[in-house]
């Protein structure tokens, strides 16, 4: 929704959503002019709607008068995927307890990976993601661990699309990525090093919601200086993924936040 949305006939709901979308990719406070520019709304319209959102508690202002997400909206957001997080969180915490490293659980949303939970380690490692954050599928270990077990048309849709280069080491060649996905599907895990953020590397394994049906991926992050230690964590990562799989298998299908689809090609 972010971007130029000041179209004729635009509904009030669309305008409000375009304002909220201005906060989607950054946790920092935004000025009125920034929100106006990013939402595509006139400052007068943005100011009026922000006032209503502030009264309700969806946004709040800091000491400099800049806007940020309000506590009421944050509280509301905690209900999204709550049962899923309640099932997975104990296993994620146990994984952290066994490794003392940053670990996370992610799913696919379109051509991006969406981080739904994370436990941070105390050791310093450059952070590229956060809970609720998104990163390109092709550039992350969790993303490739998911994509390797998706249907072929999903892989093609992602690899034939725009492959953003986040660092000089980001792999963006479709042929190279297809070969790597094939290898991942054989060995059962994915690796990535400094492809999103310099100084960090990651190992990830797939998490299935049913035999042959991918749900997401479980990953662990280390500083690049310790990249040689990544694969030592593979057994505990795989064991935790199996425990999460067993846990989510008992959830009603409607409870699971299923990965969103990219555009599926029509049959001729």
Automatic annotation (TrEMBL):
Domain of life: Bacteria
Keywords: DNA-binding, Glycerol metabolism, Transcription, Transcription regulation
Entry annotated with the keyword Ribonucleoprotein: no
Gene Ontology biological process terms in this record: glycerol metabolic process; negative regulation of DNA-templated transcription
Domain HTH iclR-type: 10-71
InterPro entries attached to this UniProt entry: GAF-like_dom_sf (IPR029016), HTH_MetabolicPath_Reg (IPR050707), Tscrpt_reg_IclR_C (IPR014757), Tscrpt_reg_IclR_N (IPR005471), WH-like_DNA-bd_sf (IPR036388), WH_DNA-bd_sf (IPR036390)
Residues in the signal sequence: none
Keyword Transcription regulation appears in the UniProt entry: yes
Recorded GO MF terms: DNA binding; DNA-binding transcription factor activity
Pfam families assigned to the protein according to its UniProt record, in alphabetical order: HTH_IclR, IclR_C
Domain IclR-ED: 72-250
Free-text function comment from the UniProt entry: May be an activator protein for the gylABX operon.
UniProt protein name: Glycerol operon regulatory protein
Biological source species: Cryobacterium flavum
